[in-house]
Amino acid sequence: MILPEEKLTLKDGRTVIIRTPEEKDAQALLDYLKKTAGETDFLIRYPEEITFTLESEYNIINSTRESEDSAWFTVFEGDRVVGNCTFSPIGSQMKFRHRCSIAIALEQSYCSCGLGAVLFERAIDTARKIGYEQIELGVFEDNDRGRALYKKMGFEEYGRIPHAVRLKDGSYKDEITMVLFLQ
Ligand SMILES: CC(C)(COP(=O)(O)OP(=O)(O)OC[C@H]1O[C@@H](n2cnc3c(N)ncnc32)[C@H](O)[C@@H]1OP(=O)(O)O)[C@@H](O)C(=O)NCCC(=O)NCCS
What we know:
Blueprint: E1 6-9, E2 15-19, H1 26-39, H2 54-66, E3 71-77, E4 80-89, E5 99-106, H3 115-130, E6 134-140, H4 144-152, E7 156-166, E8 172-181
Parallel strand pairs: 5-6
Antiparallel strand pairs: 1-2, 2-3, 3-4, 4-5, 6-8, 7-8
The chain binds coenzyme A.
Coenzyme A binds at residues 40, 42-43, 104-106, 111-112, 114-117, 139, 143-146, 148-149, 152.
């Protein structure tokens, strides 16, 4: 899905562009994935696991642009990607078509300036217009900022997978499942 481009001034005065990425943004997206994966343990990959090729990035960018049921709200500072919020269907089967999942990651320097809430508002609004009935996400138990944002957006906790994640140091984290009903 291709969304209209939006210029946004953040609480701290910085200006960013939110738009659907194009093929020319593939390397910037890979750089952003690697950077954010190294900044926090709240994402599912370690930086060395960001091994996507430019070719695979072109494919996912193009399939998202052509899709009618998924969208990327990508945040640009100039040519650099500093955040991304995406939603996509849980599955292609008819029985799952009312459900989508949402994910978000901002560079640390863009956290705590209201960007997460803006991206979630845009994504929730678009998912509702498409006809989804519920949006789902998983968040690690110690991600207080994420959990606070999702709660503020109306998501509620419905489940917990114990020891969903095992870090390099051998410690575990639970994953909490949250759902927002749209109707
Ligand atoms: C999680 C994330 C998307 C939140 O977006 P954000 O724009 O930074 O969100 P905010 O800083 O505006 O915080 C949202 C709310 O949490 C509150 N909050 C911030 N830090 C908090 C903390 N440590 N504990 C509890 N609440 C906190 C804020 O006060 C805010 O509520 P308010 O608007 O009512 O004041 C963003 O920080 C991020 O991408 N982090 C790194 C990657 C990540 O964790 N991704 C999500 C994986 S599930």
